[in-house]
């Protein structure tokens, strides 16, 4: 039995009620089959209903191309209900790339000439949305006539359509130039705003228009003066708000959505023109009031805008920190995510304790898809602003206990390094970790850190001499039993078992009792299916049997680790890289340049100069040096200054340069991306291009994520061969995701130091 076709409302409810993607696809496939059958039957009375359902399916991302011709039929229909849906379908389903869009030109022309105001408005909207250059040329005369129609509704849409036509076909400027002078006398602000936009487009594309409109500057100034001095007018009221684009932040009614829209436009204006500090504080306060609004959309806009402002106006945004923290408990995931990003960006040295406590409370109850971001943000904030080492260790332990499965991979290494460098906290840390491990062995990062710490400082655990916490008496058998429990647990990863096995081995030199139990466990894992764990167990068993006299020395405690910041480590890494590049082989058997060119395969063949380098001209100083058999090394070249080429919302891109002296035609550029904002930059890709006379090779980047709040930078090496020593031009394209938005930037770097190519 054939299931009857659904109404539009019923289809929407059924699709929204689908619990899985498969159920949604099944509903849509059945309904699309009904729609196709109805189109084939040619039912004129219900064609607009079927197309309306198809347009909803199209907006969900499903194919709807088979409805294109039905749009043309509905547009040609004399009924307004058909035309309305037909024009909407044309705007959604047709564009310049499809020849079918040209078939509606005659219908639009007829509707513009003979239709009612509503029909003319539909035709103008469609033309301004998907009109191609050919359609614009054919219909320019009809649009010009409508610019002077008595109806303000039609005139406003005609002006906007003229703007689209000028952008598509600049030579149509001569047609729309004369009506603009009359349109400047309009009292309707919508038409006046559209006319100003049309004049700007004309001036940008036609020198004659620019010269023509210079004469109307006094009239434009008079219009501005009138706008500022005119009082309330019912003619210019929108939802009870007069002249929305002319209001200011202090006298706008916020009880209606139109007033909130005006205030948000005010905020955007203040931000875009880089206003004085007082106005920026006003913008932040407006957004702070938005956070108290009951409308979720307004709160989301406020959180997103404050996140943009937090870098430039940190103190002003800090005043609204309590309200932002309250937004963490929003049931809407998109709101809580934005509140989390903003809360992490607000953490500083003065509020790190309070903010971390709030964030840890949110971590316990937050949705699963936010746990990784929240845990990583807390760990980064603690690493950057920790007031004491003990507080830092406690914070990481609480995060590992609450959401250990969601932390980043480097959390274990960071905590072990932190504990290893705090000698005064060894006893405190091992006792805290032992208690946490005894309660829960499911959080793998926590288990790994605890096993490492017990293996290193097990003797301090058994002494029970820690004054920082309550006395805890631990027996050797209890410690060994706990580690064996970790080894036997089905929840333990192979890496976790490796930590536990190493901890048992180290305890063989820390405990005072017999080691037979430890030796027995080690020998059991000598036949483990995991190859790495088996190898480790075999090596430990060999250490027991053959090198027992060396075991204590081999398994002694790790030395204290000095923690260096990521910037220091990166600078040391860069200096080593530069030193390695500068320390080339002093007496190569063949020219180094020729080797490099062959290696990179950048040129067709080595040049004559590369194969036979010219001998150096002898000089008295050089002869004396050779006589004394001293190395003759040229003086080191002056370092090339670094260059910052990009900065946006905390993301910075800088270039550093090295020219190996043995290959002067080669330039090594290190692209370094750093991120001082509150959110990670993910899916980061840097692409480069150079003129054809150059040869470019891009090395693989160090990663595709630039951590937030000054984390470890991302680097990428570019090798550029410039055999002609021509001035270097570099074009970069960056694509990345920041604060949930995809960004693409393309720019050219023309201000490279002359030392990079001369």
TrEMBL record:
The UniProt entry, under SUPFAM superfamilies, shows: ARM repeat, Clathrin adaptor appendage domain
Q: Which keywords are on file for this protein?
A: Cytoplasmic vesicle, Golgi apparatus, Membrane, Protein transport, Transport
Cross-referenced InterPro entries, in alphabetical order? Adaptor_Complx_Large_Subunit, AP1_complex_gsu, ARM-like, ARM-type_fold, Clathrin/coatomer_adapt-like_N, Clathrin_a/b/g-adaptin_app_Ig, Clathrin_app_Ig-like_sf, GAE_dom
Renumbered residue ranges of the record's region Disordered: 565-587
How does the entry describe its membrane topology?
Answer: Peripheral membrane protein
Q: What is its main location?
A: membrane
Official protein name in the record: AP-1 complex subunit gamma
- Higher taxonomy: Eukaryota, Metazoa, Chordata, Craniata, Vertebrata
């Amino acid at each position: 039995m054939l299931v009857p076709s659904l109404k539009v409302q019923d289809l929407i409810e059924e699709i929204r009620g689908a619990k899985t993607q498969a159920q949604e696809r099944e509903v849509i496939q059945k309904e699309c089959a009904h729609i196709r059958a109805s189109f084939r039957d040619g039912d004129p009375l219900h064609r607009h209903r079927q197309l309306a359902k198809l347009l909803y399916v199209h907006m969900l991302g499903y194919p709807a191309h088979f409805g294109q011709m039905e749009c043309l039929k509905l547009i040609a229909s004399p009924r307004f209900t058909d035309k309305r849906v037909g024009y909407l379908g044309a705007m959604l389903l047709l564009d310049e790339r499809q020849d079918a869009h040209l078939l509606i030109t005659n219908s639009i022309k007829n509707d513009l000439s003979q239709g009612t105001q509503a029909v003319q408005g539909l035709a103008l909207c469609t033309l301004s949305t998907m009109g191609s250059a050919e359609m614009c040329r054919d219909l320019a005369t009809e649009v010009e006539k409508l610019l002077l129609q008595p109806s303000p509704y039609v005139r406003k849409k005609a002006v906007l359509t003229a703007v689209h036509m000028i952008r598509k076909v600049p030579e149509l400027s001569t047609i729309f130039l004369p009506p603009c002078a009359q349109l400047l006398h309009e009292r309707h602000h919508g038409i006046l705003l559209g006319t100003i936009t049309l004049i700007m487009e004309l001036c940008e594309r036609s020198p004659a228009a620019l010269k023509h409109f210079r004469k109307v500057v006094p009239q434009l100034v008079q219009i501005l003066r009138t706008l500022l001095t005119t009082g309330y007018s019912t003619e210019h009221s929108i939802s009870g708000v007069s002249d929305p684009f002319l209001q200011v932040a202090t006298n706008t009614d916020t009880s209606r959505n139109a007033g909130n829209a005006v205030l948000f436009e005010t905020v955007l204006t203040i931000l875009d023109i880089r206003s004085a500090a007082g106005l920026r504080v006003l913008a932040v306060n407006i957004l702070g009031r938005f956070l108290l609004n009951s409308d979720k959309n307004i709160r989301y806009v406020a959180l997103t805008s404050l996140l943009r402002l937090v870098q430039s106006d940190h103190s002003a945004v800090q005043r609204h920190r309590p309200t932002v923290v309250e937004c963490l408990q929003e049931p809407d995931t998109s709101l809580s995510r934005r509140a989390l990003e903003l809360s992490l960006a607000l953490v500083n040295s003065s509020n790190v304790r309070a903010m971390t406590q709030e964030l840890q409370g949110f971590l316990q109850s937050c949705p699963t898809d936010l746990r990784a971001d929240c845990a990583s943000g807390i760990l980064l904030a603690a690493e950057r602003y920790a007031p004491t080492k003990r507080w830092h260790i406690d914070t990481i332990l609480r995060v590992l206990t609450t959401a250990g499965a969601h932390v980043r991979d480097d959390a274990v290494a960071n905590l072990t390094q932190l504990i290893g460098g705090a000698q005064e906290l060894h006893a405190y840390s091992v006792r805290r970790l032992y208690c946490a491990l005894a309660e829960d062995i499911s959080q793998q990062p926590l288990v790994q850190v605890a096993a490492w710490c017990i293996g290193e400082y097990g003797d301090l655990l058994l002494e029970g001499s820690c004054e920082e916490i309550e006395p805890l008496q631990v027996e050797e058998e209890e410690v060994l039993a706990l580690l064996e429990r970790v080894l036997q647990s089905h929840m333990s990863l192979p890496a976790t078992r490796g930590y536990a096995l190493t901890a048992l081995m180290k305890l063989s030199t820390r405990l005072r009792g017999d080691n037979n139990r430890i030796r027995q466990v080690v020998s059991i894992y000598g036949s483990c299916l995991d190859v790495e764990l088996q190898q480790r167990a075999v090596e430990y068993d060999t250490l027991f049997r053959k090198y027992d006299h060396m075991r204590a020395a081999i398994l002694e405690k790790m030395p204290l680790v000095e923690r260096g910041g990521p910037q220091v480590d990166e600078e040391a890494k860069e200096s080593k890289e530069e030193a390695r590049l500068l320390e080339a082989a002093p007496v190569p058997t063949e020219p180094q340049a020729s080797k490099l060119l062959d290696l990179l395969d950048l040129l067709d063949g080595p040049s004559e100069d590369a194969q036979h380098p010219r001998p150096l001209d002898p000089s008295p100083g050089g002869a004396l040096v050779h006589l004394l058999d001293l190395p003759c090394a040229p003086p080191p070249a002056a370092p090339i200054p670094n260059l910052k080429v990009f900065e946006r919302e905390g993301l910075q891109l800088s270039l550093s340069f090295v020219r190996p002296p043995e290959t002067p035609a080669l330039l090594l550029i290190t692209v370094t991306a750093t991120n001082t904002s509150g959110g990670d930059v993910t899916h980061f890709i840097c692409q480069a291009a150079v003129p054809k006379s150059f040869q470019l090779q891009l090395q693989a980047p160090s990663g595709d994520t630039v951590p937030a709040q000054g984390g470890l930078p991302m680097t990428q090496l570019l090798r550029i061969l410039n055999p002609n020593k021509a001035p270097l031009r570099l074009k970069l394209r960056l694509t990345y995701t920041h604060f949930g938005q995809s960004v693409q930037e393309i720019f050219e770097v023309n201000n490279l130091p002359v030392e990079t190519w001369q």
